[in-house]
Give the backbone structure.
Amino acid sequence: MIREVEVMVIGGGPAGLCAAQAAASAGAHVLLCERDGVPGGQLVKQTHKFFGSERQYAGDRGIFIGQRLVQEVRENPNIELLTDATVLGMYEDGVVTVLKDDRHLKFRPKKTIVSTGAAEKFLSFPNNDLPGIYGAGAVQTLMNVGGVKPADRVVMVGAGNIGLIVSYQMLQAGVDVVSVVEAAPNIGGFLVHAAKLRRAGVPIRTGWTVKEAYGEGKLEGVILCQLDEKWQQIPGTELDVPCDTLCLAVGLTPLAELCWQAGCHMEFIRELSGHVPVTDENLMTSVEGIYAAGDVSGIEEASSAMVEGRLAGYAVAVSLGYDTENSQKEVDAARKELSELRSGPMGGKIRAGLAKVAEKRGEAVC
Amino acid sequence: MRIEQHPILQFDRGEKVTFTFNGQPVEGYTSETIAAALHAAGIRELGHSQQLHRPRGLFCAIGNCSSCFMTVDGEPNVRVCVTKLRDGMVVEEQEGKGVVHS
Amino acid sequence: MLIKDGIPTAEDLASVCPSEERLAKGPIAITECFQNIACNPCTKACPQHAISMEPDINALPKVDPDKCIGCRVCVAKCPGLAIFVVDMTYSEEKALVTIPYEFLPVPAKEQMVTGLNRSGEELGSFKVNRVTSGGKTNMTWMITLEVPKNLAMEVRNIRVGV
């Protein structure tokens, strides 16, 4: 049996929760599918305070923002929330299949918002498969969701926001953070995060990388080394650092498999960190009725993901004829918020990526 | 090791349960994933790679990758990083690609 | 250099440090925020409307030295934990420095703690003058320390116990 659905939102992270809430508050009926048992996406482990402005709950801790968004969604009678529900496929006839409680469910949504987020990238170096070499997000899950002390002595690779934030959170969990190493010549994350770590005594080494890891059966240490301006390892700079855990915070990549399956026009855009669906100003992909919001359409901060979700949700409401005047106003407001969030120097990369998306969209139309 | 005190978080661990890892009893809590309970018990090696038999642990902890596949209650290829613990669970390292029993 | 190692330079600090005259008048907030990021809770937090950001939320915060009364509300509100309050008028020899703190254990009033500089190096043992909670959901503590005046612009973190 195929169940007809008005709006389906795939993924209950910051983008998906906001998308569902937006579309539903305009009057649309929404089915929100979340693969985990608890909605919230990666907000469930963000113990730090968010940046941005009031509209993105700036100053609140990510975990509490997540709880608030989940509560709004649970209280909205227009939203049906399916947890432990993994979307498996999106087919050309519009059918979306979902695995829930070992059953294979079929839906046919009028509109679909894909907000499946991202996955952590890996890094290649000898012995990078040793147990104890984890994604930084994995360690964040272990300690902030599982309540497990993830390590005794850790080296963090990557001084972007995730690397800096997770290092700080490891200090809060009682872990000895030996060093943060960053291959780039400069710290990529917010400098206030870097300063916080530094004054807690954690050295941040820019222009350094992991040469290799070692250990019998599990990680026992890493050899760090310095890089020259051409990113080549400088012989003689090797530093042996004993540690039981190495965290990789070397970027995220969009989880866009469903967009591929649905036949969306996909492009590899470096600034957005991978293959992304080409979307229009309403965040609709090249496939009519399929939208993409949040990290799946380009890696950015969670604040932007929330606003993108809201934008897509209201855009869907407009397209379905729900409260069109007000919904359109919300779409315009979300666009304005996004351009404000992206307008500073830290938004340069995302602006460049989005400009490429706009270019690709033009090419596809011609 | 588990975090006893945290400046921001409080952990509701649920009930204490016992499960087995490769036949050895291990204690954990119902709010935990199998991977979290094993990690808390100091067990990081969850399996071996299929061809070179190199030791493998978890990588993403949120169900994206396949680094933590184990056999749980006879079912192979279970992502232990997103599977909640239950009392009496039998958790084993799996051989190769795992065999699905019908 | 801040962008290389996370340590603000003397030049960075000079750009946010209040004048000697202003410091001599009473407590004031110092925003050690040197990067244009989209963030503005400090401007909303200040009851005196002393922190502004122009033209938009990507600008650096500016503290109006005439309006700021050093009330410390902004210290726990800044998501980057980048605001400190310095009071050079506390006593003849000592100044008060308020820092945001998010670790355990939280020190008690009168307790001696180790003061750290912006590189995490120890500067000595200092007495806690005041401990204020940021609130149930804010969860950032504001720790006020008594430090020698010459270290008021140096002490930016603490270590409690070992």
User: Anything to note?
Assistant: Chain A touches chain C through 43 residues (CB under 8 Å). The mean pLDDT of chain A is 97.
